[in-house]
Amino acid sequence: MVEIIFLGSGGGRFITITQFRPTGGFFINTSKRIYVDPGPGALVRAWRYKIDPRRIDVLFVSHRHTDHCNDSEIMVEGMTMGVTKRRGTLIASKSVVYGDDEHTPAISKYHLDSLEEIHIPNPGERIQLGEDEMTITPTIHSDPTAIGFILKTRFGKIGYIPDTEYFDELKKIYHGVRLLIASVTRPTNMKIPYHLCTEDIIYMLKDMKQKPEMLIMSHIGMKMHFANPYKEAKFIENVTGVKTLIAKEGFKVKMERKDIKLRTLRPAREL
After folding, report:
1. What does the H/E/C string look like for 63-90?
2. Residue 97: what are its φ and ψ, rounded to 5°?
3. Where does the pLDDT of residue 270 fall: very low under 50, low under 70, confident under 90, or very high at 90 and above?
4. CA distance 213 to 256
């Protein structure tokens, strides 16, 4: 069984600032413990749902925007036992590790030096993570180094589409995944550059020969938040036939051989 716990569902600067939706990313518990896109509040949200950062094996950071990378350094400190033990794997975009013309690196040299492995992969590269294999996927985003992934497990493939605008290769790249986690920032008729909207994900799913069993929408922006994302998800499901849900804090997904099961966890700690 593979377990995924969402530590938030928000994205974009105004949702991040207001925290109308938490921005803690999500956690995958498979043969390795993988934390994905630790935005603001990731550390606090992780502890709230009994995810001990000292037990994380892999940190995946898709790109150098605050809502995806803010808590990266403290998560590295967790993985490395307070930077006292060389351990853990970082998989991150070039911008996260080196910065770019507009951003400093998201993770300091002090923290990078404490890690056992650092991967700055290009799309198409494969990384073995215990019994599982991660294939890096491309994006078209304002951070041109942003990356997503497909994680191949013995219970099926999990696909993660981070911030990107729609391009035709997406439907081929994510063909055959059982579970698709996608950053769908905007609702119908409110498209913006470098991000997916409701129409984009419908177009993608309708054209896929082997559709996912389930789509979980995350990275909900302010316009989507107030447009009723649950209504948007129902619309996507009705048009495409793919079961579609909106991520939320404490949302737990169990991917088993025959079924994908869902429940909402109660927080173990209050904020």
Report:
1. CCCHHHHCCHHHHHHHHCCCCCCCCCEE
2. -85, -40
3. confident
4. 12
What is the predicted pLDDT for the residue at 271? 66
Q: How many CB atoms lie within 10 A of CB 128?
A: 9
3-state secondary structure of 271: coil
What's the whole-number mean pLDDT along residues 200-227?
Answer: 97
Distance CA 154, CA 47 (A): 28
What does DSSP assign to residue 55? G
Condensed to tens digits (0 to 9), the pLDDT of residues 64-114 reads 999 999 999 999 999 999 999 999 999 999 999 999 999 999 999 999 999
CATH of domain 2-264: 3.60.15.10
Host H or E run for residue 196: strand 196-197
Buried b vs exposed e over 103-120: b needs ≥16 C-beta within 10 Å? bebbbeeebeebbeeeeb
User: Can you give the pTM of this predicted structure?
Assistant: 0.98
The domain spans of the chain are: 2-264
Angle at 42 between CA 36 and CA 47, to 5 degrees: 110
Q: Which residues contact 80 (CB under 8 A, 6 or more apart)?
A: 86, 87, 88, 111, 114, 115
